[in-house]
Structures are given as structure tokens and as C-alpha cells.
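queue> pop job 88
queue> type: inverse folding (structure -> sequence)
queue> payload:
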């Protein structure tokens, strides 16, 4: 290991100006990153880990931050070491993207919605590397292949909104890697991805790091990813570094209480082996919450039969439908009162579309959805509005589902005003009670969404979904963007509410360890179909379908001595779900391999 670190942060202090005076984002943080080394910065949202990386890119100033003290030393390839805190904006522009690449957490905000993917990929190459248009396009195609995007030629001509979340994130990674930077800052790059793609992207980043000697500063809250990727770990808490060490030291012998709490909150795959019903997690130092199992009932509240949802693909001069995207293909399942059915699978498998079809946020093509004795598909707009009081949705991206111009208390109160369930002081009391429920201070009621961290925003979304006392909540990746400790609290919260209020959940997720923790039943989706469904224990302890087995294999394990290598991952490319207009899909047929445990026998393409 060389002494000359590529980047070293020394005594960094960052302040933000607010109406109430300056707020310290990072108090006093120092660490180094050496060539070819991956340093993981962990901590929960609001601990200052992203602020440190944005300071190094000098982007923190654009977010109202101010580097109040400390040095940010960066070793440039040609001109040696310089303090980025002092560099002028023009030079910073040359360094950014060319010598320091950054992968942002929210791919949709990092991509420009009005330019094609190809244009955004070639822009940096033409600017920094002075490539011709055709050379840049060839390199862009090569980059998309490296990040394993299916049909890359077609993707270059598409716009960001036409890609799934996982694909958008891969485009962002390809953009960051385009100029082969000396330092790559990855801010939660795999949070929104499913296990298979996450495993591939981690292996990809690892390979690129080995081949190019790039140093990686990896910001994450996923301890399993840390175990998989890190050489050294820096643990941050409330703007300070509380512990630093090699990955083995941190996992096997954590010293600081906060690090211990962080490791205690990680749901580990296989922890629930031998139990039939989910139970909340025992958190480090938390004695106030019950950890009793939640049996639920055997009485169905939602029955879905042969659900099909397709989206038309328009083309030609007349914008006629030339093909259909078969997003959900002949899916059937039942959810019981007070129980959780989880739908898992990778992005693009149709799990979110299935969830939205249940509430008719997208109109199903055919099939039946019976909810609490009502046929949801046949309801008119007025009756559907009434039915939605009992079925709510928590979306994946809380920032997109909250109104940026409304105070949080008004957003939580809105459904109750809409349905006229509470008014006046009773309404405000209920809002305050909901804030207590999701463990947010009441002082936040007068804040706006942009003043909250991701985890706090997601809790607001949960409070809003609970406002009407629904019988069913469809939670679409509701905890995927949260950090471990908050995720554990939010999951415990959802399970406590289930135990108390008898809420049923359709829990859509790609995090297998979380699914194992919360589910009574699990359905595994692939290419629009459920390939395996059954009681949680049966699916996890005895997976029968080859796709379920591959999915289990890809789950990273929070143990640095059990790292996955690239050869463990043998994923087939996913076939296209787009079929011509007259295409007739075969019905889904299952064989029963155990009580309630069914496996698809129709050819699912895997």
C-alpha cells in the first residue's frame, strides 16, 4: 500500500445556514483513501456521510453548505497534491467527472430528463476526453455492456423515464466510470437496486477498481454491502467519526456503542430459520418494544385471480399500438387479514405494477381483484375513491410522493380532510399522534420535505398511509432507501401496527433478509409471473424454482469472511417482456410441492 493517499480529508467542518442560524453538518472528520482501496463510510441518514463526499466534490456549496474548516487534499495525476477547498470553480469543473467520479443515490435526479441516455453518456467523454462523436458513442455502448444493461443499442436512444430504477442506476454508474476517474465516490449506489443487480454492480465496481487502480469512497448504510466491498470502514455518527478500522475489525470486534447498535440492526438471511411467523427485531439497547411473533388470521381480505397488466408500445406515424409490455402476466394470490404477503424479484419483474394494479393506480388488462368482499375492477370512480380509504400505498421514493410546497403536518392531514374523517382540533391531535407513532418529533410538523433526510421522509409517507386506518397497505420498497437502524425501526413499527390494528400488507421488496423478517407468505416474481409462492419458511428453507435459488445465492452476507466472488453469480440476461400485439401468453400453471407451496411449471424463460 502506497503512502501517498489519493484523497485525504483533514478536520473537515461543514455548516449549513438555516432560518434558525447555522447547523453543523459535519463537525470534525478526518480520513484517507489510498490507491486501489475501498473505504466504506457508514452511518445513518443525517450522520454527515453524504455531506463529506459532496464537500470533496465541492458540490456541498450548491446545497447551501459551507466548508467552514479543514483541508480536502486530492492527488492529481499530473500536478500532484492540491487542497480542493481552495480551488477555483473552473478548475473544479475539470476535476469533477474527469478525475473524481460520483455515483449519486437518486438516479432520477442525477440524470437529465430531457436528454437521451446516449447524449448524457457521451457528454463527459467529449468534454474531458476530447473524443469524436462516433468514438464517444462506441465507448458509451461499451460502458452500457460493462454494467450489464440488456439491449444497450436501444437504451442509448431512450430517455431516463423509460428505464426502470435499476437500469437508471446502472446508467449513472456507467457515466461515473466513463472517464476512468482516479477516485470514485459512490453514495448509496445500490440502495435502490435488487439483489441480483446489486451483486453484479458490486462485483463490477470491484473489478473496475482492480483493473484501473481507482480508489473508491463507498457511502452506504447496508452492512452486508460493507462486508462485501470494504477494505477499511469509517463509522460516522452525528457529524463525527466514531470508529475506523479494517473491515474485519469492525465486524468482529466493534468498540463503539453506536457501531454495535448498527450491527445489531442488520437483518441477516437465515436468522428466522425454524420459525413460522414473523416477529420484530431485538434492537441493541431497545427494551421498549415487544418482540412477540405475529400470527395473523386465516381469513382472506384480498384475493387476486389471473391478474394481467399490459402497457401498449406505440410506434409508426399514426402512433398505433405495435406491441405490448407484459408487465404482469396471469398472477394469482391471496392475502389474509393481519398477515403480510411479500412479492420479491428484481427490477422490471412486475412487482410494483402488480401492487399498483391492486389499487387501480394502473388499470389492469384483465383478471379479478376481490378486496373485503368488493370487486375492485368493476367499481366506478366514486366507489373506487371510497374503497381506497381502506387500501393505501407507501411508495418507493418518498420525495416524489410528497408535495414539496406543503408542510408535513398538512400532508399527513390531507387524506383525513379528503375523506372528512377528522376536523379541527381532533385532526391536529391525530396528526401529532401519527408523528409520535412513526417516532418523529412533533417539532417536525411545520417542516417541509426538503428539510428532512430520506429516512425521515419515508416515515412521513408511512404516517400519511396510516392516517385513514386502512385495512391493507401496499408497501412498495418502503424501506429500501432507509439506513439499517431506521429500517429496523420502521419494520418494527409496521409489524407493531400489524399486531395492534390487524393491518394486512402486500410488501414489495428485493431485500431478501427483510422479506424473511416480515412475511407470512412470499411470492417470487420473474418476468411478470409468480414463479414460486408459499409460506415464508417453505420458500426460504426449501426453494424449488431455479430462479428463487439464484436469488438466494446473490444475497450479500454481513460477514467479511464470506464474500461472494463474481463466479458465484451466474445470472442469465432477462428476456424482453415486450411482445407483438397478437401474442397469446400461456396461462400460469403450478405444481404443489408442499402445503400451500407452489412452483410454476409453465416456461417462465428462466
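queue> result:
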Amino acid at each position: 500500500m502506497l503512502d501517498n493517499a489519493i484523497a485525504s480529508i483533514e478536520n473537515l467542518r461543514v455548516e449549513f445556514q438555516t432560518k434558525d442560524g447555522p447547523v453543523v453538518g459535519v463537525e470534525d472528520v478526518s480520513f484517507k483513501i489510498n490507491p486501489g482501496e475501498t473505504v466504506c463510510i457508514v452511518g445513518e441518514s443525517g450522520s454527515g456521510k453524504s455531506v463529506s463526499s459532496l464537500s470533496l466534490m465541492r458540490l456541498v456549496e450548491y446545497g447551501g453548505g459551507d466548508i467552514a474548516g479543514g483541508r480536502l487534499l486530492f492527488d492529481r495525476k499530473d500536478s500532484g497534491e492540491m487542497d480542493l477547498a481552495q480551488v477555483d470553480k473552473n478548475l473544479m469543473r475539470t476535476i469533477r467527472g474527469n478525475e473524481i467520479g460520483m455515483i449519486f443515490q437518486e438516479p432520477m435526479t442525477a440524470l437529465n430528463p430531457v436528454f437521451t441516455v446516449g447524449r448524457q453518456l457521451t457528454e463527459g467523454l467529449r468534454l474531458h476526453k476530447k473524443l469524436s462523436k462516433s468514438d464517444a458513442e462506441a465507448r458509451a455502448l461499451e460502458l452500457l455492456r460493462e454494467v450489464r444493461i440488456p439491449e444497450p443499442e436501444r437504451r442509448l436512444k431512450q430517455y431516463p423515464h423509460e428505464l426502470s430504477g435499476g437500469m437508471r442506476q446502472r446508467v449513472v454508474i456507467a457515466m461515473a466510470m466513463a472517464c476512468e476517474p482516479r477516485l470514485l465516490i459512490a453514495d448509496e449506489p445500490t440502495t435502490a437496486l435488487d439483489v441480483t443487480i446489486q451483486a453484479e454492480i458490486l462485483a463490477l465496481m470491484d473489478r473496475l477498481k482492480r483493473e484501473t487502480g481507482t480508489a473508491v469512497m463507498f457511502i452506504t448504510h447496508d452492512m452486508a454491502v460493507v462486508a462485501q466491498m470494504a477494505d477499511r470502514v469509517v463509522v460516522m455518527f452525528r457529524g463525527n467519526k466514531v470508529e475506523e478500522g479494517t473491515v474485519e475489525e469492525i465486524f468482529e470486534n466493534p468498540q463503539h456503542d453506536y457501531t454495535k447498535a448498527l450491527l445489531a440492526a442488520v437483518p441477516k438471511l437465515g436468522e428466522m430459520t425454524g420459525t413460522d411467523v414473523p416477529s420484530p427485531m431485538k434492537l441493541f439497547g431497545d427494551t421498549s418494544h415487544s418482540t412477540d411473533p405475529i400470527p395473523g388470521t386465516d381469513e382472506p381480505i384480498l384475493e387476486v385471480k389471473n391478474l394481467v397488466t399490459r402497457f401498449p408500445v406505440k410506434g409508426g406515424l399514426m402512433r398505433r399500438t405495435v406491441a405490448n409490455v407484459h408487465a404482469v402476466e396471469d398472477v394469482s394470490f391471496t392475502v389474509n387479514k393481519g398477515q403480510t404477503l411479500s412479492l420479491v424479484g428484481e427490477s422490471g419483474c412486475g412487482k410494483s405494477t402488480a401492487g399498483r394494479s391492486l389499487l387501480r393506480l394502473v388499470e389492469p388488462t384483465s383478471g379479478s381483484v376481490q378486496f373485503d368482499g368488493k370487486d375492485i375492477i368493476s367499481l366506478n370512480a366514486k366507489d373506487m375513491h371510497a374503497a381506497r380509504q381502506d387500501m393505501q400505498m407507501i411508495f418507493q421514493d418518498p420525495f416524489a410522493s410528497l408535495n414539496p410546497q406543503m408542510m408535513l403536518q398538512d400532508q399527513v392531514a390531507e387524506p383525513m380532510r379528503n375523506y372528512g374523517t377528522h376536523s379541527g382540533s381532533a385532526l391536529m391531535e391525530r396528526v401529532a399522534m401519527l408523528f409520535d407513532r412513526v417516532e418523529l418529533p412533533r417539532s417536525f410538523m411545520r417542516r417541509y420535505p426538503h428539510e428532512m433526510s430520506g429516512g425521515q421522509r419515508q416515515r412521513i409517507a408511512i404516517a400519511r398511509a396510516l392516517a385513514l386506518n386502512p385495512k391493507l397497505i401496499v408497501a412498495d420498497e418502503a424501506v429500501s432507501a432507509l439506513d439499517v437502524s431506521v429500517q429496523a425501526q420502521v419494520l418494527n413499527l409496521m409489524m407493531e401496527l400489524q399486531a395492534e390494528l390487524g393491518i394486512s400488507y402486500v410488501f414489495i421488496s428485493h431485500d431478501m433478509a427483510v422479506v424473511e423478517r416480515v412475511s407470512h407468505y412470499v411470492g417470487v416474481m420473474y418476468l411478470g409471473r409468480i414463479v414460486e409462492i408459499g409460506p415464508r419458511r417453505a420458500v426460504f428453507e426449501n426453494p424449488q424454482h431455479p430462479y428463487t435459488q439464484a436469488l438466494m445465492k446473490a444475497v450479500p452476507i454481513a460477514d467479511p469472511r464470506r464474500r461472494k466472488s463474481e463466479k458465484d453469480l451466474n445470472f442469465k440476461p432477462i428476456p424482453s417482456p415486450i411482445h407483438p400485439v397478437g401474442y397469446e401468453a400461456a396461462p400460469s400453471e403450478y405444481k404443489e410441492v408442499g402445503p400451500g407451496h407452489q412452483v410454476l411449471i409453465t416456461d417462465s424463460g428462466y
